[in-house]
Design brief:
single chain, about 325 residues, alpha/beta, Rossmann fold, 11 helices, about 30% helix, about 25% strand
């Protein structure tokens, strides 16, 4: 009975969620310099994940230059996991991975909050989060959980200069956070080809606008959502991945790596190379740079082009 009720709730939210009227309008956030560079070249770190998860995540950040580059003590850092559905990792962010990242940020002096909104028919987000055990984890750490769809009026209409999107409605909490850290999973996506760092931004769009995004040119719209603001740091959990299907369930492989960067295009291209190294039935383009998400992001200057970044391994 509970499963049926959850399904009915999800269908209701999928069909009935609407953006409220009278929301404030704001410009896109000014673009920040990518601080994760070496000799002025953007970096992507690639670490072989070992049994010491904390050590592996810390190493991925150290290779970029260390967390002292991210935020001053006391600044608010919003962490964006991927709790799109109540499915286990890599359908959703691994809670141990989330815990490690939060611990590292707090030890660096940041005030950390976690923000999320589930997708499709997996809302309300609070129910999905509860099924995954998120509230218990964060309560034990003293970290606030911001459920975007719980805050009916706390949204901002942001004007962007996209070719397919001119405006996106996003949570005020995400718009105003001092810093933004993304924790994408590594996986293919039935509709958008893949779900990596560029796609994670769709979880910031008001649910009432997301359904319309899927009607046409979804992949290009995915990239353009990121025009409202870009993450300051991306840490991608590639210990496991989906190489077909997705985003909730798919063909599972174990690349056993962690990627980190401040450049969405660079890290997504490196992740696509990993996914393409497996023989699987999917819709990935043979050349990652030809993927509509990547090509659109490049056209809008959301990342560097081919040969424009450096991979550092450890």
């Amino acid at each position: 009975m509970s499963t049926l009720m959850d399904t009915l709730r999800g269908i209701y939210h999928f069909l009935m969620d609407r953006r409220p009227d009278g929301l404030p309008v704001a410009p896109a956030k000014p673009r920040r310099e990518n601080v994760w560079r070496q000799d002025n070249v953007p970096l992507v770190s690639r670490v072989k994940a070992g049994p010491d998860l904390r050590g592996s995540v810390a190493r991925s950040i150290e290779l970029l230059g260390g967390l002292d580059r991210l935020a001053a003590a006391g600044e608010t850092v919003m962490v964006r996991p991927n709790f799109n559905s109540p499915d286990p990792f890599p359908g959703s962010t691994d809670l141990n991975f989330l815990r490690v990242v939060l611990e590292l940020l707090m030890e660096a002096g940041a005030r950390v909050v976690v923000g999320e909104s589930s997708g499709g028919m997996w809302r309300p987000t609070r129910l999905t989060a509860a099924k995954l055990g998120v509230p218990e984890l964060l309560a034990g750490m003293g970290v606030e959980l911001v459920i975007f769809d719980d805050r009916a009026k706390d949204w901002v209409r942001v004007q962007i200069k996209g070719d397919y999107l001119k405006e996106v409605t996003v949570p005020r909490a995400a718009y105003e956070a001092t810093r933004l850290v993304y924790l994408p999973c590594m996986k293919t996506h039935k509709l958008a080809r893949f779900s990596l760092s560029l796609k994670l931004a769709v979880g910031l769009v008001h649910p009432g606008e997301r359904r319309a995004m899927h009607r046409r040119e979804l992949e290009r719209k995915v990239a353009e959502v990121n025009l409202f603001r870009q993450p300051d740091l991306i840490i991608m959990d590639g210990r496991r991945a989906f190489v077909s299907g997705g985003p909730d369930k798919g063909e599972l492989v174990e690349p056993g790596i962690i990627l980190a960067s401040g450049d969405m295009v660079a890290i997504d291209v490196e992740a696509l190379k990993v996914l393409l190294s497996y023989r699987a039935r999917n819709r990935l383009t043979a050349n990652p740079w030809d993927a509509p998400q990547v090509a659109t992001a490049l056209r809008h200057g959301l990342g560097v082009g081919e040969n424009g970044y450096r991979v550092v391994s450890g």
